[in-house]
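User: structure tokens for this one?
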Amino acid sequence: MTFEEEGLLTGRVLAPDGRPAVGVKVTARLSPLGRMPNLYLSSFHAATDDEGRFAIHGLPLTEFDLSV
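Assistant:
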């Protein structure tokens, strides 16, 4: 069994008017074009809070495609 360090992605989503975007779904999907080829394209999700902030825990250390 091997254990690898997990990644954490945090950020803040703002609306075009500069206000926090509340309750927005943020998705990090494993990139098929990264330096580590992925045979599966898992997605990880989070929703923004009242200040537009989000955190996605448990990510493998590789490249992602991020969508909001």
